[in-house]
Amino acid sequence: MRRVVITGMGVISPVGNDLPSFKDSLINGKSGIAPITRFDTSETKIKVAAQVENFDPKQYFIDKSEIRKTDLYVQYAYAAALQAMNDSGLRAIDDGENSANCDPERLGVYVGSGIGGMTTFYDESVKLHTRGPSRVSPHFIPMMIGNIAAGTISIKFGACGPTLPVVTACATSTNSIGEAYLAIKHDRADAIIAGGSEATLTPLAVAGFANCFALSESDDPERASIPFDKERNGFVMGEGAGILIIEELTHAQKRGAKIYAEICGYGNTSDAYHVTAPHPEANGATASIKLAVKEAQIGENDKIYINAHGTSTQLNDKAETLAIKKVFGERAYDIAISSTKSMTGHMLGAAGAIEAIASTLTFTDGVVPPTIGYKIPDPECDLDYVPNKAREFKADFALSTSLGFGGHNACIALKRFNADERTK
User: Are residues 271 and 221 in the same domain?
Assistant: First the structure.
């Protein structure tokens, strides 16, 4: 069976628009949550969000006309993909200085979005209402649809292989990475650009999430996204993109690529219970983690880090804690767990990829990021959530979990890379 590794990563996030700044923010517990500046919040109870700051699409798009024709979520996705491809050194086409080192028909794109071009959808809806149908942009549909980030990335990098824009709400990019892993493992591709992107900080999206009681109404950025804390009262909306280059091991080794970590397990399940609430017994989440753990062959003595979905909602954090206990029993209390959403907010369809990157970095640095803002323990959430300060911890395996509206559950297992290990 083919082994699958991570050879490149790219980030656009509320805590940094490149890999070094993102890593530094996580290790130092820097929060990207702040008062909303994108629109007037006087008519909503939602006052804070995790916004991407200082993003300049001109750094990534040569043609300025492209910027006008692409939604912000596509701009984020392409920017992160360009970072990841440069980091990896992977090329399916000659770039003028370097020759291609990957067959275009063996390079795929699995980049999804939970919502798609919400910024464009909102702006064009307002235009329709105030100025009439003749003023709606002819680019509205290709700017808004949820597959266009994957399509744009495919065009930019000449990726002619399997392309699959996954849409599973907040589990989107974890499923994207997991499905990319399976495609490479089963010889459908040699490398895949995988991840997710989201840009939904509009009055419409905020109102929609707020009115289904999903968002925190705290106006204190330090007490808004507080996963596993007893006073948690909803998630904080975030935005951005996370992209990973997923590659077959021998393909990566032949071209001399650096290897961050190995992907070794994947679980994908459904609660079949409720459109927004997790199953009260955490059955689906438990099953997805079990599948990933079993495939990864995690042993009793292996040290584990879990980057939890950890949204800071009452139901999610309780259910996820229960799922971890069901999978690991008493051993759950020895596992280092954290929610980086305490710093990035909930990046929706991009969350899983950003958290997979955060998990991967634990192998390179030997440090796990904290759950910041944690003050008041909850008896129903009583595991080790690495509160407030990063911790030195040499993990053998990392699990990254995601739970999405509709009952979607996804978990990927990552492993410290060992070049000498034989394929099992």
Answer: no
Chain-centroid distance of CA 394 in Å reads 22
pLDDT tens-digit series, residues 127-142: 999 999 999 999 999 9
How many domains in the chain? Answer: 2
The model's pTM is: 0.97
Same domain, 241 and 334: no
- 152 and 244 both lie in a single domain: yes
Catalytically annotated residue among 102, 346, 381, 411: 346
Q: What is the pLDDT of residues 199-253, one digit of tens each?
A: 999 999 999 999 999 999 999 999 999 999 999 999 999 999 999 999 999 999 9
Q: Is pLDDT at 424 greater than 50 in this prediction? A: no
Catalytic member of 170, 264, 381, 411:
170
Task: Examine the domain organization and report whether 35 and 172 are in the same domain.
Answer: yes
Residue 170 a catalytic site member: yes
CATH of residue 194's domain is 3.40.47.10
Catalytic residue among 102, 309, 381, 411: 309
274 carries an active-site annotation: no
Q: Would you call 309 a catalytic residue per the annotation?
A: yes
